Amino acid sequence: MKSVRIGIIGMGNIGKHHAGYLLEGKVARCQLTAVCSTSPDKLADYAAKGVKIFGDAMELIRSKAVDAVIIATPHYQHTTLGIAAFEVGLHLMVEKPISAHKADAEKLIAAHRLNPKLAFGGMFQLRVEPRYEKIRALIRGGDLGEIVRVNWVNTDWFRGEAYYASSAWRATWKGEGGGVLLNQCLHNLDVLQWLLGMPARTRGFCQLGRFHQIEVEDNVTAYLEWANGATGVFVSSTGEAPGANRFEIVGTRGTLVLENGKLMFTRNAADMIEFSRTAKTGFSKPDATTGEVPFTNATVPHATLMQNFVNAILDGEKLIAPGVDGIHSVELANAMVFSSLTKETVELPMSSAAWEAKLNQLIAESKLEKKVMQVQASDFASSFRK
Ligand SMILES: NC(=O)c1ccc[n+]([C@@H]2O[C@H](COP(=O)([O-])OP(=O)(O)OC[C@H]3O[C@@H](n4cnc5c(N)ncnc54)[C@H](O)[C@@H]3O)[C@@H](O)[C@H]2O)c1
Question: Is 74 in the pocket of ligand 1 (CB under 6 A)?
C-alpha cells in the first residue's frame, strides 16, 4: 500500500474538521475516500467532491472503499463500530474517549488484540502540542526530580445551555456516559496520565447539573494520589467564566507552571528533600532560578496525529497516542464520578464492572427530558487549545 484510503464515520463538529484538513492535503500519503453520517444533510458537499457517501456506518465499514476509519460519532458507538472495523481488517483512529466507559474500552482493546497488525490510534491531539511535549521531556529527563504534587485547575471549558441542547446525546448518561470529565477535559486527563502515569487512587467530588439543565457532572474537584506518595488536585467545570487553566507540577528539583500560554520552570539549585536533610539552618530553602520555556502551539494538531497514524500503517512508525492508552483517561473520568456517587475513595485500577452497573442504574433511573434545538454555528476550533 502506498496511500491510505480513509473513511470518516460521524460528520458532526469534529468529523467535519478531520475531513477539512484531509481534503486540503495536510496529511501526506492518504486520501479521504468515504464519509458517513446518520444526518444526510451533512453529506452532500462531500459527494460533490468525489468522496463516497454512506448513511449507514456498517455499509461504509464493509464497502472496501477504505483501509482505515476515523470514528467521530457519539461515545457509545466508538466501541461497537470500532470492533466492527477491526473485524473486517480496517485500521482505526477513534475519537476520544475511546469508549463511553471502561468496560467498553476493555472490549475494544480485546478486539484489537485479535488483530494486532492493525494500527489503532486514539485522537489525543494534545500529545503533539509542544507545551506538553516539553513538560514531558523535562519530567523524563529528571529535571524536576521526583514528582511530589500536581494541581490542574482546568475550568476553561465554559459551555452554555445551547451547547447541551445542540444534540440529543450530549450530557446524558445514556448518550454520552458522563459530562465534563468524559467529554471536554478528557484530553487533559490523558495528558495527566501520559506525563505522570496513572494515580493509585482518587476521591472525586462531582456536582451533577450544577450549572446547566443536564444530568451529568459539570463541576468537579478530584483528589489524586500516586504510588510514590505524590498528591494532586484536578478541578474542572463547564460553568465557570472566564475560567482558568493553570497546570502546576512540583518535583523535588523544580516546579513547572503552565498558565496563560506561558510555561515557566523554576529550578532548585539542590534537591529539596536532600537540602532539608542536610541544611544546618531551619528557615532557609534551596536557591532557585526561574525561566520561561518557550514553545509555539501546533498549527493543526489533529493532522499531525493523523500523519503519525498514516505513517504507522505504511511504515510501522510508533504511534504517539495508541488507542489502548485511551483506557486510562476513560478510567480516570469514570473513577472520579464513581467515587463521588459512592462517597468513597476509588483504588485504581478500578472495577470496570462496578462502574458499568452504576452507569446502567443511572441510565435506568434517568428522568431527564432532553430538549434539542437548532443552535447557531460558533467557533468550534477555538475549543482545541486547553
Ligand atoms: N479530538 C477533539 O478535538 C474532539 C473535538 C470534539 C469532539 N470530539 C469527539 O468526537 C466525537 C463526536 O463529537 P462531535 O462534537 O463531532 O459530535 P456531533 O454531535 O457534532 O456529531 C456527531 C455526528 O455523528 C453522527 N452519527 C451518530 N451516530 C452515527 C452512526 N452510527 N453512524 C454515522 N454517523 C453517526 C451524527 O449524525 C452527528 O453528525 C465525540 O466522541 C467527541 O468527544 C473530539
Answer: yes
